[in-house]
Amino acid sequence: MDETTKKVIDRISVVYPKPTKIPTGQTCSVFYDCFQLSPSDLARLAADAVGEVDHDSFDMVVGLAYSGILYAAAVAGGKKVGILQKDGQFFGPSLTGARVILADDVVHSGGRLKDAAAKVTAAGGTVVGCACIIDRSGGAFQSGIVSDKNGASVPLWSAFQTDMD
């Protein structure tokens, strides 16, 4: 990670004096407040996470509401963007036949992405990868949390990796 990206991550890091319950229900000493990111920050972090991904390998990016929506637009780089709403409904272009990257801000266990992948698949899309700003899964994600239509694990691209504490 370069110095500018490190400064962005440091700026959104909220350090608690003792382990604290965060919105996901987990306990940690550091919370990442991704709502503080500017559009240029999001673009930088998207480039850090998916800059090496072939732009022709996907058709659209689906952002998980609410925190993944703006990041999805940055990851898409001009391609189609959809939203998986909190109620599980999809908003955006048709998923039928689409190769999809799922986007969220912070990944903990991968559960939200796994649920999203099932919804995208049920709607006719194929998940080809997942992108996040911060991966806190401690490697758990790469053990098959989200898989493609053939059962193979899809990659998780992130700008920053860390454990829960």
List strands and helices in order, with pairings.
Elements: H1 3-12, E1 13-21, E2 27-32, H2 39-50, E3 60-64, H3 69-76, E4 80-84, E5 90-91, E6 99-107, H4 111-122, E7 126-135, E8 156-161
Parallel strand pairs: 3-4, 3-6, 6-7, 7-8
Antiparallel strand pairs: 1-2, 4-5
Helix pairs in contact: 2-3
Please, could you describe this protein's structure?
- The protein is globular.
- The longest helix has 12 residues, at 39-50.
- The mean pLDDT is 90.
- The protein has helices at 3-12, 39-50, 69-76, 111-122; strands at residues 13-21, 27-32, 60-64, 80-84, 90-91, 99-107, 126-135, 156-161.
- With 165 residues, it is of the alpha/beta class.
- It is built from four helices and eight strands.
- The protein has a single domain, classed as Rossmann fold (3-Layer(aba) Sandwich).
- Helix content is 25%, strand content 32%.
- The strands form two sheets. It has a six-stranded mixed β-sheet, with helices on both faces. A two-stranded antiparallel ribbon has the order 1-2.
| C-alpha Rg (nearest Å) | 15 Å
Structural class: alpha/beta
Mean pLDDT: 90
Number of domains: 1
Strand content: 25-35%
Number of helices: 4
Tally the beta strands.
8
Q: How do the SSEs run, as a string of H and E?
A: HEEHEHEEEHEE
Overall shape: it is globular
From the coordinates shown, what is the CATH architecture?
3-Layer(aba) Sandwich
What distance separates the N and C termini?
A: 19 Å
User: Which topology does CATH recognise?
Assistant: Rossmann fold
Biggest pleated sheet: 6 strands, mixed
CATH class: Alpha Beta
Helix content: 25-40%
Major sheet: arrangement of strands: 5-4-3-6-7-8
The low-confidence parts are none
